[in-house]
Amino acid sequence: MSTRHTLSVLVENKPGVLTRVSGLFARRSFNIHSLAVGETEDPDLSRITVVVDAAELPLEQVTKQLNKLVNIIKIVELEDDSAVHRQLLLVKVAATDETRANVLQVVDLFRAHVVDMVPDAVTIEATGGDNKVKAFLTALEPYGIKELVQSGSVAIGRGNRSLSERVSAEMQLRRA
Predict the structure, then answer these.
(1) Which residues of the chain have pLDDT under 50?
(2) Which of 68, 92, 100, 140 lies 20 to 30 A from 160 at CA?
(3) Global pTM?
């Protein structure tokens, strides 16, 4: 049985790394639900957050193969209870004079933000976990969603240790 997994992959910030990582998932026939990439606190490193549906053993095999790729520094699976997960959503909703107040109530209820307003539409920015994003969209559906764009899921481990600190500690142990 396959379940959803979130992997945080720390990589060198070099051309072609994302292609190699996503290609490995594609060759193993994993469907990538979400993929987000960006620089970390160190401009020489990037973090790839990938969300996939996979059975435990095939995911372990892919993780081992990822570790063999050049430019891969560290891979961590982020469990739901040990990490903070968020997505960014921009949604354009139809808004007439009669419905605009109701749309704005939904925006306030979900602690979202209006980023653009024209006479017949409101563009809203919202952040949150999967459940919040789904509930927000469900609440806006009756007003007419005209356009929608979502970022991939990003996640970070709870607590005060960072992924890059883990890497630094491991590198110091190898040198000793």
Answers:
(1) none
(2) 68
(3) 0.82
Cα–Cα distance measured from residue 19 to residue 88, given in angstroms and rounded to the nearest whole number: 23
For residue 120, the SS3 value is coil
Reference 52, options 26, 71, 74, 18; nearest CA is: 26
DSSP string covering 4-51, please? Answer: EEEEEEEEES-TTHHHHHHHHHHHTTPPEEEEEEEE-SSTTEEEEEEE
| Residue 84 and residue 128 in contact, taking contact as beta carbons nearer than 8 Å | no
Q: Per DSSP, what are the bridge partners of residue 31?
A: none
Whether residue 128 is found in the same domain as residue 148: yes
Q: Report which residue type is found at 164.
A: S
Name the burial class of residue 75, with classes exposed (0-12), middle (13-18) and buried (19+) by CB atoms within 10 angstroms of its CB: buried
Pair of tokens at residue 34: 């979400």
With contact defined as beta carbons under 8 Å apart, do 66 and 11 qualify? Answer: no
Cα separation, 166 vs 16, whole angstroms: 24
Two tokens, residue 123: 């563009």
Please report whether residue 68 resides in a domain: yes
Phi then psi for residue 107, to 5 deg, are -55, -50
pLDDT in tens, 116-151: 999 999 999 999 999 999 999 999 999 999 999 999
Rg (CA), the chain: 20
165 falls within a domain: no
